[in-house]
Amino acid sequence: MPDVGDEVTVRPAERADLLAVVRIENESFPQPWPYDAFERFLGEPAFLVAETDGVIAGYVVADVTQQIGRALGHVKDIAVHPDYRGDGIGSTLLSRSLGVLAAHGAGTVKLEVRRSNDGAKRLYREFDFDSLRRVPEYYANGEDAIVMIRKLG
Length: 153
Fold this sequence. Notes:
Blueprint: E1 9-12, H1 18-28, H2 35-41, E2 46-52, E3 55-67, E4 70-80, H3 89-103, E5 108-114, H4 118-126, E6 130-135, E7 145-151
Parallel strand pairs: 4-5
Antiparallel strand pairs: 1-2, 2-3, 3-4, 5-7, 6-7
């Protein structure tokens, strides 16, 4: 198990990070995003990576869109490499992304989470996300999603 210590840097994702991001994605999800999905979010202020000792340990992809005249933040994807889970990197990434979304005008943030992903739901509840609704068969394998939402500020 790598020793993370306190040396975790969170910064905007760069093209050179994409292969590491895709590897983490592939190890984390049954229906992973392809490379080009991440490539499309390069330059988004809330596409962040967590780096420790030169290694990408996790990432978050989030953006802000206008809905009914209001800015809505959307956490689209977040994952931590299996070797670095339990070290607070997911919390750090989520916290930093919420700050970026707020700085870009989002008053509310939403996300979708697999109904079976208890660890992620627990993390989101720690960050004051509330379950809004269930979306049947949201994922390609037929699993339901839970839409969770949180007010900022």
